[in-house]
Design goal:
By secondary structure, the chain is mainly β. Strand 1 and strand 2 form a beta hairpin. It is elongated.
Length: 560
């Protein structure tokens, strides 16, 4: 028991000794996060000297081996020359650094360089962003103006540093524009070209650009020009009022535009591509002068433009004579009017019932016999024809005989007009037949009465509301008389002739049981037809149907 207690005491003492003799360990933390490096904009120290700048924002306890700048020049193919490393000897610490760097050759306007600041450490190389240097040491004037196509604008200033390496372009480089510089290098002239989309009111920007390399080109906007439209001198100097004036010129507005005015005498008309002359009040048949106002220039062309009045001699009647209550036409000019127009035959007002182009058709009422001129009146002019048209009422002499067979010709004389068409009817009925007057004062018609009897024959013409019959006479119709046929015999296909008063009015002929109503030749008081080839040898009857009555010859035709 005593020994066990001694052991416990010794064990506890040994633990205490061990605990009291243990060494303490201290842990030191280091920040190895990437340092923050920046490249700053360079300064110009001379024609060929730059001050390169960089800055360390954070180091984070990283050991720096080397720091400095990397410098390059850009080439015309968008590539860069070999990097040039410029090592700084300054003590590395948080803050800004700079280095004066002299180029090996004097730079040109538009040359492009780039550089960055770097730190080289055991953990790697840390770089700032690239910063560009573009050589730009030319000061040029700027002109804000307005000009027309073909006009020359001039800029005054120092153009001594502008050489053949510079081109003049429009906005978005749409076109290359020629320019000239005076011998003393103090003036630059630009001739405004007729550029695409350069319409009136459009503002075009002109920029001088170095063409040495394709990137970082030096560009100077030197002019802002508002394009002004202008009209061409008039080439067509003669118009009719019905014509349209087509406007032509350079840099004219794209659409109707009230900023560009067309000048016609005292009228100022907002720009339109086409102007109707009749819409311009007060022109009448007077000459006028054309001009324009583009907001800067007021131009009136010296050329006089005439308004041609229609010649009375060019207006002609379609007929020499007409009957009352009929129609006539005039042709030769498409008249113009704006607010009113009137037509006259003599002193009587007439209204056209039809117009096509330069032709007007009129209906007249019961005019008295006489010769009448045509007159046209509108607010633009009054014109009267030197020629006249005769109005001639229809008068007729009764025929010298009163008895006629059906279809027999009746010769009439009177005030018939050659070339006119006339109608006859029976007893005021609807049955009508048309006949043309082939000789002045004479008309030949036929007896339309199919049956014997007394008939009233109406004679008329095409009137305002249809056929109009102002004249008539009476006849006695003798009907028809059939004489004979010949030959009396023949073969199939034989041509047969039938004679008789009015027989040419027959509707059909008959051979035996066969009716023929086609291929019938008709002449006055006779008809001809062919015997069909369907018959055999022997005799057949011959007959005709006339006015719905059938007539058969007693004698028969013999087929051989």
């Amino acid at each position: 028991m005593r020994q066990y207690l001694n052991f416990c005491v010794l064990f506890c003492l040994s633990i205490v000794v061990l605990l009291s003799c243990k060494k303490e360990t201290v842990v030191i933390e280091r920040n190895y996060a990437a340092p923050l490096v920046m490249t700053q904009n360079a300064s110009i120290a001379g024609d060929d000297t730059f001050i390169l700048k960089g800055e360390i924002k954070k180091l984070n306890d990283i050991e720096v081996i080397e720091h400095g700048f990397v410098f390059q020049k850009k080439l015309s193919n968008n590539a860069y020359e070999r990097e040039q490393t410029i090592i700084l000897t300054d003590k590395v610490d948080i803050g800004s650094f700079s280095k004066t760097y002299k180029l090996t050759s004097k730079p040109k306007e538009g040359d492009n360089y780039r550089y960055y600041y770097y730190l080289k450490t055991k953990l790697g190389v840390y770089k700032g962003e690239y910063t560009s240097i573009i050589i730009n040491n030319i000061t040029l004037p700027y002109l804000n103006t307005a000009a027309t196509v073909g006009e020359v604008i001039s800029l005054e200033g120092d153009f001594s540093k502008i050489n053949t390496d510079y081109i003049l372009v429009t906005e978005e480089h749409q076109a290359v524009i020629p320019y000239t510089i005076s011998a003393d290098k103090k003036k630059l002239d630009i001739k405004i070209a007729n550029l695409k989309n350069a319409y009136h009111g459009r503002v075009i920007q002109f920029t001088l650009k170095s063409k040495i390399d394709a990137f970082g080109q030096t560009e100077r906007r030197i002019a802002s020009v508002k394009i002004l439209g202008k009209l061409d001198n008039p080439k067509k100097l003669s118009y009719q009022l019905k014509d349209q004036l087509v406007i032509s010129g350079e840099a004219l507005p794209e659409d109707d535009n009230s900023d560009f005015l067309i000048l016609i005498n005292d009228h100022q008309i907002p720009y339109k591509k086409v102007i109707k002359l009749m819409e311009i009040g007060g022109l009448d048949s007077k000459p006028f002068k054309l001009g324009y106002n583009n907001g800067r220039d007021i131009v009136r062309f010296p050329e006089e433009i005439s308004i041609d009045k229609p010649l009375a001699s060019q207006i002609v009647f379609d007929k020499k004579a007409i009957h009352p209550r009929s129609t006539f036409s005039i042709k030769g000019y498409d008249f113009e009017y704006k607010d009113f127009e009137y037509h006259y035959l003599g002193t009587f007002s007439i209204i056209p019932n039809y117009k096509y182009g330069d032709q007007y058709t009129f209906r007249i009422a019961d005019f008295k016999d006489g010769h009448y001129s045509y007159k046209y009146v509108s607010e633009f002019y009054e014109i009267e024809t030197p020629t006249t048209i005769e109005v001639r009422s229809l008068k007729m002499n009764k025929p010298t005989q009163e008895e006629f067979y059906i279809g027999e010709k009746i010769h009439l004389t009177g005030s018939f007009i050659k070339g006119e068409k006339y109608y006859i009817n029976l007893n005021d009925g609807d049955l009508m037949q048309e006949y043309a007057c082939e000789e002045e004062g004479k008309l030949t018609v036929e007896n339309l009465a199919g049956k014997k009897g007394r008939y009233k024959i109406g004679v008329g013409y095409e009137g305002i509301g249809g056929a109009y019959f102002p004249q008539s006479f009476e006849i006695t119709s003798l009907g028809y008389t059939i004489y004979d046929f010949f030959p009396k015999m023949g073969y199939q296909g034989q041509l047969i002739t039938i004679k008789g008063k009015g027989v040419h009015q027959a509707s059909s002929v008959h051979v035996g049981e066969i009716s023929i109503n086609y291929n019938i030749q008709r002449e006055q008081d006779l008809i001809k037809f062919i015997i069909p080839n369907t018959f055999q040898k022997g005799k057949v009857t011959i007959g005709v149907t006339l006015n719905n009555e059938y007539y058969q010859f007693d004698e028969k035709f013999e087929i051989l």
